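Q: Study each token:
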Amino acid sequence: MGKKLKSKEEKKKKVSMKEALLGVKTVKPKTGLNGNGKGKVDIRDYWWKYPSFLSNLFKKGIPFTYIMLFLVIGIFLASFLQSDAIARILEDSGTKNTFTEGSVGAISTFNPLFVSVNYVDKAVQELVFDRFIYIDADDNPTPGVAKEWSSSDDKLTYEFKIRDDMYWQDGTEVTVDDVLFTFNTAKSLAEDYGFDSVGVSLIGVEIEKKGEDKVIFRLPEPNPTFY
């Protein structure tokens, strides 16, 4: 009998405890960012959680935050481009005598005496070799190796004066003999060997040296190539 009464009393206590707990209303404490329950904002929490804080701040400030971001990047790039390091790089690049050009295709010849329709050949020749005279956009002759020229009234004799300030890659001065040799070689390739060279237009033309700075071309008949 004693045990049964005791168990009933314990049962009543358990029921009453459960009811008591169910009747209690929980109140959430006011906590700050640090969770200490004081409700105060601690600057250390902002510093500790700065990624999410900055992200939220950035999103709330759109589009002004984008403007500020690009403004900062622009100021940084402008400062960097005006720095001494960039100036030194530009100075170093300005002292180099190397020109690099890319082109699609294969080179068939490096010899400018041979006529070529290959664009790559022409591009290389323009970069490496000087012309005797140049033709501008209006089809007018302009100085090249020859700086002055004149022709006879019958258009059969042409006289060219050679520049005296041109040098080969080894520092040797370009002379009228070099010019004469080049034209005679081109002429011989076409006249004697049948090659498609620039000397085709010189077949039958007499080429001679006059003094130390002039070359004379004597044509057997008028030739539009020399006009």
